[in-house]
Amino acid sequence: MDLYKQADLRHPHRKTNRPPDEFIWIQEFMKQTNQKDFIHLSADQAERIDYFKLESFGKIMTINIEAPVMYCNAKALLRKMLEEIISQKKVAMIIQRWDRCTYRFGIICLVAFATQEKTYLIPVLQNCQLVTKIIKFVCASPVILKIVPDSRTIVPFVFRQFQTEIIGLVDLAETHYFVTSDHPEERGKDLYYLVNYYCRKEIDSLLDFADWSLSYHNVELQSFVVNKARSTIQSFQSIKAIENEKGNYKLQQLLDNTLSQKMKRLSKLVNIKKSEDVFSCKDLQTLVGREPTENEVTLYSSMIPFFTDIAKHFDVKVQDIITNNQMADLVKVKRPTTVQVITNMFTASKYLQTRLPEIVNVINSVLPKPDHNVTITQEMEIDSDECNDLEVIQDVLSEKCATPSWADAKDGNSNAEAPVTVKMPSVSVIVSRPAAPYDPNRTCSSCGEIGHFKRNCQNGWFLNPFKLTREQLTKRKKKRGGRKVREQRQAHQTVPETTSKNFQC
């Protein structure tokens, strides 16, 4: 069915203000790829992309595998690109949206990855599911270093559209600010200043803000994205080379700090995956010889990063520091442990001679205390109301547990059970509202006496009406002093003048 007829059937009230053909095509494309609520454009924004056709998008650049620029619009090319990016472990990332001023509505149409050998141009709307998985893997992998010109224009859009964070990110704007810390006049410069300063190359910055619908017909936008990605990786290499010549390793310090901060944000599972060649959670059951408990899993997951850091410090393997048997004994250790117990485990290890107290602290902080070591620091206190309830319960239990009446009715029954008595523990009864100790400086604002405050005043307490009986409530109602009650009392107390005169007569 024609797209215009579909629009007429679905939106009969929009015949006069019908969106263009290309906008409906994009909506249908998103629905077919299970991208619901992915794009919401108004009619005014749809008019800007009336020349946008994805069918002719593949004809812009020719596919050439051997060329330095590879247009990855097929699944085989995407897989080959991913293999080459993983082997390089350093890539520059550039995105291009189709509209410059649509943060809420604009979507990413092009993603460019640039390495030292090749530049990869990826149309996002073709093979959308596979492209999304690949971009998620590249962005979330801590092994691959991602270099971006400005994180403010890339990170929020990548997170919004692909729902992933960029781990191992190097921002060239932040890098330039860090490198030029000795020259305050050069701060705040963007990518174009970096490219011009380090690579001696001019880039037309107007294309970065060009509308995607107007520039897709020409090769200008594609060439701009490719040049931007290449200049990004060249700027990074040029900055690194200049810093090495000067002897100032600020960039290397920035990279180390960036990677360390990003790695700290990862979960414990990522730390376990780093040392998966030596130990893994699957091997915990074989080490223990049974199904591991929750405490053993917690201790195991916390000790693996500890031994991995020690191995990196001494530049050795983790197997040289701790063996499988030692790891099994360490996981089964009970808390609280001492340094002597850990020393007996690692007598042959020369790398852990100064780290034994740290291991003890980790074990004692991770594992919970056993129940039998719990000490009671305060005696049990029972309120006066609770004590009365206990006495009532004791009386009821003594009546219920006494010898039943049918036992006496039997003749010659000497096996009758003796009555069971329940002994209640002697507890210290606490007064519900004890008076405060005498202090000459204390004055009560309620009664005016010296020696206590108003909160501890026992003169004229106000009882809770919800806890009173019916008789007590009726007595309290009789003592009320409202307006009508006062008038009645005055009427009964005062004697009229007429009666007094008559009495005198």
From TrEMBL:
Residues 491-505 have a biased composition (Polar residues). Residues 444-459 form the CCHC-type domain. The keyword Zinc-finger applies. Signal peptide: none annotated. Keywords: Metal-binding, Zinc, Zinc-finger. Pfam families: zf-CCHC (PF00098). It comes from the Eukaryota. GO terms for molecular function: nucleic acid binding; zinc ion binding. Residues 473-505 are annotated as: Disordered. InterPro entries: Znf_CCHC. This is CCHC-type domain-containing protein. It comes from Allacma fusca.
